[in-house]
Design a protein that fits this description.
The protein is of the alpha+beta class. It is built from four helices and 16 strands. The radius of gyration is 20 Å and the shape is globular.
């Protein structure tokens, strides 16, 4: 099936949420670590994971006064008789998967050789999901993101860590808006926010609430990543592709914090700080025209 309107809305909202947290909250930490070999997830590649995921890929984030810009990883250091930096596309370094926190090589690092990199860790990972709130809060096992001063190993592919924000569509409908077949499409989106401190929970919820009454650009361009979602040399810049007239309007935002104290969510791990952020998104469109 080809991409439909709600597919574009959800994927574009994911990129929007990721961008505003990084931009307005400086929600990242620069770090340097080794990358350790993980389970090989793709044929002909050797994958090496960092202790963290996800890594910042948005090159439009410059950092506000008093904060350093995020270190956007564009290559890796390989110690083979001395440390040397290799950009992607050289010395077998095929790509960097920011969401998985790993680098992919066409040749295996052997013997005493090591691979390391400098990157920015997101304070909140972002995911699209179809899971219910109960499944997210009770039935899915997450690893707490390790602290940057710990000595840790690479995370296995597919491991989900928190702090994290899960976006899921809920109700949507079309109501008559004007003559000629124009409807107002209303889409309700729930975000489940999982934080490891009350401070970060309050900060994330504050940003997600304060960006209400904004236009969310529907991303039309292909993201500059390969088939496995990895960087191969062309930078990703959110503001560079969030342009044009194709937008939806973020009309309302409602925040419910510390939902762990509410039934049926009162059995949540007490060390996990939780909130629901509910968005109402509206747009006037012609839903019965299928030539787009």
């Amino acid at each position: 099936m080809k991409t439909q309107f709600e597919n574009r809305v959800m994927s574009s909202l994911l990129l929007f949420v990721d961008h505003v947290l990084l931009k307005h909250g400086n929600a990242y930490t620069n770090h340097t670590s080794y990358f350790e070999e993980t389970t090989q997830s793709f044929a002909n590649y050797y994958s090496y994971g960092s202790p963290f995921k996800q890594l910042v890929s948005d090159s439009s984030i410059s950092g506000s006064p008093g904060y350093s810009a995020p270190a956007i990883m564009s290559g890796a250091y390989i110690n083979s008789g001395g440390w040397k930096f290799f950009p992607v596309g050289t010395s077998g370094l095929n790509s960097i998967n920011y969401r998985q926190g790993e680098v992919n090589l066409t040749t295996q690092i052997t013997g005493a050789s090591r691979i390391s990199g400098t990157y920015a860790i997101k304070d909140f990972n972002t995911y699209l999901t179809t899971l219910t709130e109960e499944e997210i809060l009770f039935e899915t096992k997450y690893k707490v993101r390790p602290k940057t001063l710990q000595t840790t190993t690479g995370l296995a592919p597919g491991t989900q860590t928190y702090p994290a924000i899960f976006l899921k569509g809920s109700l949507s409908d079309n109501t008559p808006f004007s003559f000629g077949g124009c409807d107002q499409t209303n889409i309700n989106v729930r975000m489940v926010v999982l934080a490891d401190s009350a401070f970060d929970l309050d900060g994330a919820c504050s940003i997600l609430k304060d960006v209400v009454k904004s236009n969310v650009y529907l991303i039309q361009d292909e993201l500059p990543f390969n088939a496995i979602g990895a960087y191969t040399g062309k930078a990703y810049n959110y503001t560079g592709i969030a342009t044009g007239e194709s937008t939806v309007f973020l009309n309302k935002a409602m925040v419910s914090k510390n939902v762990g104290g509410l039934s049926p969510y009162n059995k949540i791990n007490p060390e996990m700080h939780t909130a629901f952020v509910d968005y109402e998104i509206i747009v006037a469109r012609y839903p019965r025209k299928f030539n787009d």
